[in-house]
Amino acid sequence: MKYLKSLTLLITIMLFACKAQQIKTTDLSSGEYNIISINNNDVSQHELTLKVNAEKNLITGYSGCNNYRFNYKESKKQLDLGFGVSSKMYCKDTQAIEDSFFEATSNVKAFKQSKTSLELLNSKGQVEVKAVKIN
Question: Which of 40, 64, 74, 87 is a plausible cystine mate for 94, CB 3.0–4.6 Å?
């Protein structure tokens, strides 16, 4: 009987430990990325960047002309970027790219992250922004 109680306790602890570990894997993880596409348009030649600081719930980077920042909220792969802020320079050659980036980020509701990439998704699960991790 004592053996059965110990076994039951051990199994219960293992189940809770596994559940806690599963929840943690859904969090947006810190990393540095190069943005390669916005709405399936290749922007890799413009060297746009995205850096996630998970400890501060902060996304920062370069959007083609200006630096930007989002203070995000997330839970279970749902992502709310809120309102972003950026510097205010006008760059004739890259303004359209930057405008498309901010329009895309305004539609972001979720994310999909792997060891090598980050996709920011809209409410339909379509990729708004795709980025690859910098080694």
Answer: 64
Query: Is the CB of residue 56 less than 8 Å from the CB of residue 86?
Result: no
CATH classification of the domain holding 122: 2.40.128.270
Q: Is the pTM of this model over 0.90?
A: no
The reply to whether 101 falls in a domain is yes
As given in the structure block, the two tokens for residue 45 are 């030649």
At residue 54, φ and ψ (nearest 5 deg) are: -65, -30
The total of structural domains in the chain comes to 1
What does the pLDDT look like over 65-91, one tens digit per residue?
999 999 999 887 789 998 899 998 988
